[in-house]
Amino acid sequence: MEENKVIEELMEAGKKHHDTCPQCGKSFSCEQTLNLHMKFHSGMELYECDQCEKIFKLKENFNEHMKIHTEEKPHTCDQCGKKFRNKGNLSDHMKIHTGAMPYSCDQCGRKFRHKGNLNTHMNIHTGKKPFACDQCGKSFRNKGNYNYHMKIHTGEKPWRKTTGESHACSQCGKKFKQKHILNQHMRIHTGEKPHTCDQCGRKFRYKGNLNTHMNIHTGKKPFACDQCGKSFRHKGNYNDHMKIHTGEKQYTCEQCEKSFIQKGQLNEHMKIHTGEKPFTCEQCGKSFRKSSVFKVHLRTHSRERIYSCDQCSKTFFRADFLKDHLTVHTQERPYVCSLCAKSFRQMGNLKTHLKRHSGVKDHICSECGKTFFTVYALKKHQTVHTGEKSNQSSHSDKTFTWPEYLKIHETIHTEEKPHTCDQCGKTFRLKGFLYEHMKIHTGVMPYTCDQCGRKFRHKGSLNTHMRIHTGEKPFACDQCGKSFRHKGNYNDHMKIHSGEKPHSCDQCGRSFIQKEHLKKHMSIHTGEKPFTCDHCGKGFLKKERLKKHMKIH
């Protein structure tokens, strides 16, 4: 009891002298270290390091600490050879190889290798910031950030060596404030990617990148916008999104004064002015401004379509193309214009539409300065100056902006049908036509009427069917004013006025406007009576005669 009273008196005296020991005058960086030091004067047995003057209550802790100065690391990992000062650090390290993450957050399900990491993570959910700076009042969730912050006030620069030199990369000369950041940077040169996804095997240089990647598999989007409810996997994407609500566009092009939310967007935009296209295809020599567009282009040569629709089996080069395509089946039009409420299936279509409201025509002709809403319109215009007909059909004067469109057009003249159905052998000019045809064999009917539930193979068939519910008859005869839902019916009707009867009977020479009428007529010659009474077995040429007969029964 007497000993404790002495310690308390010494501590109180120390506090009055701003973390200075009143017994020996020694100063300390914090009150906790001073309190521990006071126990020396009370006669308590303590262990002080003669290298850094750190004090320990327990001898085993002191012995472990001394290994820092001796650089002794007696515990070796049998997987990768890395050495550790104590067995506990080795045990923690082994979790990297085993993949063990025994500590799970009960709020969001995120897993951790170490209990301490879980405890620190929980501060995100509780909002707790237990480490407060007594100089400026700023608070921190973890002690590491707090310690780093405190060096601002002390003027200490821990990332500097005693010689004042920073940590420089021996490969490229880039300098870093902290050695562990240099170590991470070195992975760029060595190609080392030590963090592996246990779901898909993808490897990453940094643990943070793996953690973010895991959100793809879990479907987790932890960063939610409180303005519109939209969620994001990456904090960077969330931060960029928030600028949409604030209207902040801090990156401005000094050439045309156009502003951007992200610096990367400005850098991409600058290539328009510089004409820079750093990504060149070795197959065809075509160059691109963006790496993402270049990668997609490469798949046109390899014919690699890695994204497949589970509704109709159509495949795509890019994930966003598949995402846009899926709205065909769901009828979803998620992109809505805030000015006129018009909705679109694809974000690109909305962006083009918005330019019409704003009047922004950001595609500029370098020859005459004329501006256009789309790159397609600009390319078409530029042929006026060049006189070029680079994608001209060899069979007609028709020209095309893109070589792919020319290639498709040419199959009309050559009658080439390179796409074959493996079920029935029927051939098609376009792959899209084959996809549509395959629905006959698979029975897939992805388009559903939301009024009556009837299903259709093709979007066009659904659109035509919807006119039954809306009463719309868009095809009007200018001769007699009669209207039709279907263009085919309208075309047949017009033959009444023109007198055209293209379908002739080869037995008697009689002609008909519609092919169906000819088929019915042919049953006179064949003797076929396709409509049979199921009561008495009598047959009829026409359905209406069967109906009349049924009244007898």
Short characterization:
Helices cover 43% and strands 12% of the residues. It contains 20 helices and 34 strands. The longest helix has 15 residues, at 2-16.
Number of helices: 20
The CATH topology assignment of the domain at 2-70 is Double Stranded RNA Binding Domain
**Helix-residue proportion:** 40-55%
Classification by helices and strands: alpha+beta
Number of strands: 34
* Corresponding CATH architecture of the domain at 2-70: 2-Layer Sandwich
User: How large, in whole angstroms, is the Cα Rg?
Assistant: 38 Å
Low-confidence stretches: 1-7, 13-17, 158-165
Give average pLDDT, whole number. Answer: 79
Mind describing the biggest β-sheet? Answer: 2 strands, antiparallel
How much of the residues is beta strand, in percent? 5-15%
Spatial sequence of strands, sheet with the most strands:
1-2
Overall 3D form: elongated
Distance between the termini: 116 Å
Please identify the top-level CATH class of the domain at 2-70. Answer: Alpha Beta
Write the layout of secondary structure elements.
Elements (H helix, E strand, L loop, with lengths): L1 H15 L14 H11 L5 E2 L6 E2 L2 H12 L4 E2 L6 E2 L2 H12 L4 E2 L6 E2 L2 H12 L4 E2 L6 E2 L2 H12 L12 E2 L6 E2 L2 H12 L4 E2 L6 E2 L2 H12 L4 E2 L6 E2 L2 H12 L4 E2 L6 E2 L2 H12 L4 E2 L6 E2 L2 H12 L4 E2 L6 E2 L2 H12 L4 E2 L6 E2 L2 H12 L4 E2 L6 E2 L2 H12 L16 H12 L4 E2 L6 E2 L2 H12 L4 E2 L6 E2 L2 H12 L4 E2 L6 E2 L2 H12 L4 E2 L6 E2 L2 H12 L4 E2 L6 E2 L2 H8 L3
Antiparallel strand pairs: 1-2, 3-4, 5-6, 7-8, 9-10, 11-12, 13-14, 15-16, 17-18, 19-20, 21-22, 23-24, 25-26, 27-28, 29-30, 31-32, 33-34
